[in-house]
Design goal:
heterodimer, A: 331 residues, mainly alpha, two-stranded antiparallel ribbon, two-stranded antiparallel sheet, B: alpha/beta, Rossmann fold, 2 domains, 4-stranded antiparallel β-sheet, 11 helices, 22% strand
């Protein structure tokens, strides 16, 4: 087995592009679910809107990338309003149902033949829509060390992506520790009590939905730019549930948990995959047990087992406080 | 900002003890309020006035519609018909948070302490017009830090009064049931209400705490606030209320001073059943 290669692959993934995307998706969910108690099961929709909003204006309409970012933020605010206006007055579980449906509507519209001309149908969009971004890349060559390896473009995405994550996390840390953040946590505990103190709960839930949604859509920006393509089926419900996994791994309602959760998530997936792949190719794992083509599925099975163990032995996640979890909302 | 205390300290002696009687200085007036749930009429209040600066008890047997009436008055539920006003302002269709901002703050029968917030956070949440609660200003702590310090100082003062100060950094969930009741009332005071509506403030509170809670409620009257409370504990009703309103089957069936209401035939009938004085054996013999 080539342990150095395993280490390099695993560490590169741990701080890599996918970790950034999932961290951003989970930071948004942390705002929704962790701090405000909004069960948003449509986070993939926000990422999809972010991703399509950087690709479509540039490719189909020749709009500069920087304006496309603003369009993406604007679109995700509109999407949050569309989701929130009818549902935020209702009980939390209605939001869950509506958001999961809305995210699927976004994906189905994106892959429908009707808008093939602009959105590329089920093939999505591939093209150099990120060239303005990569033109700013100061790195002429990639990073190639025994423990980390990125090509030049990925290195640029990783550096800007982590900067974005750091800025968002810092702002979020200030916000959740402000009276505004206190109000959000209070809404999570009991909306009616907050209303009785003269606070407009509906307005604050809408703010939470918008902020978390915009953060999610920046994850979509990174997703699209890093691959220079947008595929509608990447933004299915699995993406939302992985983002929840990341959040719960780290522990909900902790500022750093989405980051650490995303790192652990991708560390485990790539580590398990590499071990299995090396084991199979070096005949350490017999063919009748696992074939080379099954590695991709089996890593998710093992990941699932690991998550079950986590929920049993550490339900509060990495950063969570078990005592706090035990005081669940209606203790 | 507080309205002066009611000039009429003797209102209990001068007001007619009849259902729906006019008060000399009403803060809350309700007219022809009905609320139906399917075929059941839960509330049917023809006319009701609450005297400013008084402690008024709302009593009645279970299912009399007291809590439903509370929900209607505070905007948590909408009546099928009727109008009501607070300080002369019509409250029809006003949402709960705006009712609270107008100065009418309520507590809940099933205590709504915010469990995973600390006691001091529960308190601070109640303060009005917080700069740091605006989403944009929350990002700039220097804008709201001074105000937050003032709010915490005021919260600390109230907590000390309610003997919860040593619990200020505990999660609200760690409090006992009675302490949660206290916290909820203390938190309502942070809103600086003109009228406070307490739904069963004594339920689950131990006798030692009960006495201090009674003192707090009396103190509110001294400060010129109006208190309306729902309670089953007759000792408490007797001890602190200036005026008692009795509801049964959704209607106001009696009003008056505690003493006059407790002796009222209709009230006794509502609580114990109309035939509680009759000799059951007489009926049996006839059968």
């Amino acid at each position: 087995m080539d342990f150095l290669f395993i280490t390099q692959q695993t560490l590169s993934a741990t701080i890599g592009v996918n970790t950034i995307i999932f961290a951003l998706a989970a930071i948004g969910l942390n705002m929704h679910f962790g701090y405000t108690g909004l069960l948003n099961f449509g986070q993939a929709g926000f990422l999809a809107i972010g991703a399509y909003s950087v690709a479509v204006p540039v490719i189909s309409f020749g709009i500069p990338l920087w304006i496309a970012f603003l369009i993406g933020i604007f679109n995700s605010i509109i999407f949050a309003l569309l989701l929130g206006i009818p549902t935020l007055r209702l009980r939390a579980d209605y939001l869950a149902i509506v958001t999961i449906a809305a995210a699927e509507i976004v994906r189905q519209i994106a892959r429908s033949a009707t808008f093939n001309e602009f959105l590329g149908g089920s093939d999505g969009i591939t093209g150099k829509f990120g060239k303005d971004f990569f033109a700013l890349n100061p790195f002429k060559s990639g990073l190639d060390t025994p423990i980390l390896r990125f090509n030049a473009n990925d290195l640029w995405v990783v550096i800007t992506g982590w900067t974005l994550v750091a800025v968002i996390t810092f702002v979020m840390w200030i916000m959740v520790n402000s009276p505004w953040g206190r109000l959000m946590r209070a809404i999570r505990e009991d909306e009616d009590a907050v209303r009785s103190l003269g606070k407009n709960v509906y307005l604050y839930k809408m703010q939470s939905l918008i902020i978390g949604g915009v953060i999610g859509s920046t994850g979509g920006f990174v997703y699209a730019l890093s691959r220079q393509s947008v595929q509608p089926d990447n933004y299915g419900t699995a993406l939302t549930f992985f983002a929840y996994t990341v959040l719960i791994l780290g522990g909900a309602a902790r500022v750093f948990s989405p980051i650490v959760g995303a790192m652990i998530f991708w560390f485990l997936i790539v580590f398990i995959e590499q071990i299995l792949r090396q084991g199979v190719t070096n005949d350490l794992i017999p063919d009748w047990l696992i074939g080379v083509n099954q590695v991709g599925q089996i890593r998710f099975m093992l990941m699932g087992l690991g998550l079950m163990a986590l929920m049993i032995f550490r339900p509060q996640g990495i950063f969570g406080d078990k005592k706090e979890l035990a005081l669940d909302a209606k203790a | 900002m507080q309205k002066p205390k009611s000039a009429d300290a003797n209102f209990a002696l001068t007001t007619s003890p009849t259902p729906g009687s006019a008060k000399s200085d009403p803060i809350l007036i309700a007219d022809k309020i009905t609320r139906q749930f399917g075929g059941l009429t839960a509330v049917n209040v023809d006319h009701l006035e609450i005297q400013r600066g008084s402690i008024t008890a709302l009593i009645g047997p279970n299912g009399a519609g007291k809590t439903t009436f509370f929900n209607l008055l505070t905007g948590y539920d909408s009546p099928n018909s009727g109008t009501w006003s607070f300080n002369g302002k019509n409250l029809n269709g006003i949402p709960p948070h705006k009712v609270a901002r107008l100065g009418m703050v309520r507590t809940f029968q099933l205590t709504k302490a915010l469990y995973r917030l600390t006691v001091i956070e529960n308190m601070a949440l109640g303060a009005r017009n917080q700069k740091g609660e605006s989403v944009l200003r929350s990002v700039f702590p220097w804008i709201w830090r001074a105000q937050e310090a003032e709010i915490r100082a005021r919260a600390t003062e109230i907590l000390r009064n309610f003997k919860l100060l040593e619990k200020q950094d505990d999660f609200a969930a760690a409090l006992s049931g009675g302490q949660r009741k206290l916290l909820e009332m203390a938190r309502a005071l942070m809103v600086e209400p003109e009228m406070i509506m307490l739904d069963e403030p004594m339920a689950g509170v131990n006798p030692a705490l009960k006495q201090s809670l009674l003192e707090h409620i009396k103190e509110l009257r001294t400060e010129g606030k109006t208190v309306l409370f729902v309670e089953h504990d007759m000792d408490m009703v007797h001890e602190i209320s200036d005026w008692v309103i009795v509801m049964a089957q959704g209607e106001v069936i009696a009003e008056g001073t505690p003493a006059s209401v407790m002796g009222n035939e209709q009230v006794i009938a509502a609580y114990l059943g109309a035939h509680h004085n009759e000799d059951l054996s007489a009926n049996l013999e006839g059968a």
